[in-house]
Design a protein that fits this description.
Strand order of the largest sheet: 1-7-6-5-4-2-3
Helix content: 25-40%
Order of helices and strands: HEHEHEHEHEHEEHHHEHEHEEHEH
Number of helices: 13
Structural class: alpha/beta
Shape: globular
Number of strands: 12
Bound molecules: pyridoxal-5'-phosphate
Distance between the termini: 49 Å
C-alpha cells in the first residue's frame, strides 16, 4: 500500500539540491500516487488534487482574466453557480447559463470573449445530459477551453477527455472517495502547458489535500468499479419503481428510455449512474417535507456518491444558493427529491421509498 507520507518537508542533499520532494504544498508522495491514479482512470496525462471540488473549480477559474466570458449549463451544482456569480463575476468575468442539451443555445452565446465552456453531465440535480463530443467540437473550432465536471458519472462510466474535452474536474468527495469520509477535488488534463499553468496555481494558491485523505481516496478507488456497478443496478430498479408509482409525477434518470437525451447518454456513458431525482404530483412543499422526514434507510443529508443511500431536497439544500426564479426557470421544482442510491439491498430501498411516499 502507498504509505501516508505525513510530512510537510523533506531533507535536501545540499542547498537547492533536493531528492524529488521539497515541501508538501508543492508535492507529497501520497498525493503524487493519487494524482497519477486519477489521471490514469480518466485516460489523461496529468492529474492534480485539491482540498475540495470547489478548490479545483476555483483553480480552473483562475486561468481566466477580467473581460473573459464563460458559458455553462442552467442546471448546475449550486456551489459552482455560487462561485461563478458571487465570486468571479466580481472579478470581471461574465457567465452565461443556458440549457446545454441544445447545442444551438450554446452557439448563440459564443462571442470573441468566450474563453471557457463549463459542462456538467449528468447535471445536478435534474440529470440532464449534455452531448460532450458535440460541445467540444464546437469549442475546439473557436479555440475555447472545455471543462467537464465528471463527478456524477465518474471515470468508470464516462471519459470526457476521450470525447474531446480539455479538462475534467471532479468532486472526489463523491464516488471516487465513495465512503462519505473525505472532501477533495481533482483536475485531469492531457496538455502539458495546461498542466503546468494549473500546477503553478495549485502550488501558488495552496488548496491542496493532506496525505491521509489521499490515502483514503486511493483505497476507495480500488472498489470504484464494483461500487459503480451496484449503484447503477440499484438506481435503475428504483427509477422503474418510481416511474410506475401513482403519487410520483416525473422521474429524472438518464437510463429511462423516455429521458430526453437517453440516446446521447447511451453513446457517451457505459451505464447511467446512481443519481436520480423525482417530483411528486401536486408539487406540494409540505407533503415533500413529510416524505423526506419519513425516510428510514435513505439519510437526509447533503452530498452523494457514498455507499449509503442519501436523499436531499435541492430547493432548500444543495441549490438554495440559486434564486427561486432561476431555479424554476431551469425546471427545479419545490417537490423535487434527489436520491443518491447506495449499494444496499435494492428491495429494502424500494420498501423505504414506498413507505415514505405513501405515508403508511
Ligand atoms: C457536480 C458537483 N461538482 C462539484 C461539487 C463541489 O465539490 P466539493 O463539495 O468537493 O467541494 C459538487 C458538490 O456537491 C458537485 O455535486
Amino acid at each position: 500500500m502507498t504509505p501516508i507520507y505525513q510530512t510537510s518537508t523533506y531533507v535536501q542533499a545540499s542547498p537547492g539540491k533536493h531528492k524529488g520532494y521539497e515541501y508538501s504544498r508543492t508535492h507529497n508522495p501520497t498525493r503524487t500516487a493519487l494524482q497519477k491514479n486519477i489521471a490514469a482512470l480518466e485516460n489523461g496525462q496529468y492529474g492534480l488534487c485539491f482540498a475540495s471540488g470547489m478548490a479545483a473549480t476555483d483553480t480552473l477559474l483562475k486561468l481566466l482574466k477580467p473581460g473573459d466570458e464563460v458559458i455553462s449549463t442552467n442546471d448546475l451544482y449550486g456551489g459552482t453557480y455560487r462561485i461563478f456569480t458571487k465570486v468571479y463575476e466580481g472579478f470581471g468575468i461574465k457567465f452565461h447559463f443556458v440549457a446545454m442539451d441544445e447545442i444551438k443555445n450554446i452557439e448563440a452565446q459564443i462571442n470573441e470573449h468566450t474563453k471557457m465552456i463549463w459542462i456538467e453531465t449528468p447535471t445536478n440535480p435534474l440529470l440532464n445530459i449534455v452531448d460532450i463530443a458535440a460541445v467540444c467540437k464546437l469549442a475546439k473550432a473557436k479555440n475555447i477551453l472545455t471543462v467537464v465536471d465528471n463527478t456524477f458519472a465518474t471515470p468508470y462510466l464516462q471519459n470526457p477527455l476521450d470525447l474531446g474535452a480539455d479538462i475534467v474536474a471532479h468532486s472526489v468527495t463523491k464516488y471516487l472517495a465513495g465512503h462519505s469520509d473525505v472532501v477533495m477535488g481533482a483536475i485531469v488534463v492531457n496538455k502539458k502547458e495546461l498542466h503546468d499553468s494549473l500546477a503553478f496555481l495549485q502550488n501558488a494558491c495552496g488548496a491542496v489535500p493532506g496525505p491521509q485523505d489521499c490515502f483514503l481516496v486511493l483505497r476507495g478507488i480500488k472498489t470504484l468499479h464494483l461500487r459503480m456497478k451496484a449503484h447503477c443496478e440499484n438506481a435503475s430498479k428504483i427509477a422503474s419503481f418510481l416511474a410506475s408509482h401513482p403519487k410520483v409525477d416525473k422521474v429524472y434518470y438518464p437510463g429511462i428510455s423516455t429521458h430526453k437525451n437517453h440516446a446521447i447518454a447511451k453513446t457517451q456513458m457505459k451505464d447511467f449512474g446512481g443519481m436520480l431525482s423525482f417530483t411528486l404530483k401536486g408539487d406540494d412543499i409540505a407533503e415533500t417535507m413529510n416524505v423526506l422526514e419519513r425516510f428510514k434507510l435513505f439519510s437526509l443529508a447533503e452530498s452523494l456518491g457514498g455507499v449509503e443511500s442519501l436523499c436531499g431536497h435541492p430547493a432548500s439544500m444543495t441549490h438554495a444558493s440559486i434564486p427561486k426564479a432561476e431555479r424554476e426557470k431551469a425546471g427545479l421544482k419545490d417537490s423535487l427529491i434527489r436520491l443518491s442510491v447506495g449499494v444496499e439491498e435494492v428491495e429494502d430501498l424500494i420498501e423505504d421509498l414506498k413507505q415514505a411516499i405513501e405515508g403508511k
